[in-house]
Write a structure and sequence with these properties.
This protein has about 160 residues and is of the alpha+beta class. It has 4 helices and 4 strands. The protein has a 4-stranded mixed beta sheet, covered by helices on one side. The protein starts with a helix and ends in a 17-residue tail after the last strand. Bound molecules: zinc ion.
């Protein structure tokens, strides 16, 4: 376990120092905002779909280290993927973070399994899931989402209209 904890620390630090796909995308076709009032995380996600694939994606906002690292790794993971693959990753990440998916089992998460440890930290689960929840909203109705809407953030109803 010491190795996985060390890897987790390194990944979080690396993605906070150099967040991937940072910024608001020009010509975005889909967008959503995510809030986690418990921690104060607020992220904005913009993406551009070309046909059914995620051609480009960007995020910014104010977020804690876990949320920011999760968002950074999420954008890197779904860029260039089909919308269906992206949505499958949302489900797998949510299940891993909430303890329903065994990170040692079959999945498509790759290095995202460094976040498996958040299941031990209920306050942090929402930080890690927020970017994925926001991605799901952006791919569907858009608008804004909050982790406070429901006990299971990804299944929470999407609150439409950012204004
Ligand atoms: Zn947070």
């Amino acid at each position: 376990m010491a190795d996985s904890r060390q890897l987790y620390q390194e990944v979080i630090l690396d993605h906070n120092r150099k967040p991937r796909n940072w910024g608001v995308l020009e010509g975005a076709t889909h967008r959503a905002e995510g809030h986690n009032p418990l921690c104060g995380d607020h992220i904005r996600l913009t993406l551009r779909l070309a046909g059914e694939s995620v051609d480009a994606i960007g995020f910014d906002g104010e977020a804690c280290a876990i949320c920011k690292a999760s968002a950074s790794m999420m954008t890197a993971a779904v860029r260039g993927r089909s919308r269906a693959d992206a949505e499958r990753l949302v489900g797998e990440f949510r299940d891993m973070a909430t303890g329903k998916l065994d990170p040692a089992g079959a999945h498509h998460l790759g290095r995202l399994t460094v976040f498996a440890g958040v299941r031990e930290l209920p306050m942090r689960v929402k930080c890690a899931i927020l970017p994925w929840h926001t991605l799901q909203a952006a791919l569907n109705a858009g608008g804004s989402v909050t982790t406070e809407a429901d006990a299971d953030p990804v299944r929470a109803p999407v609150i439409g209209g950012a204004g």
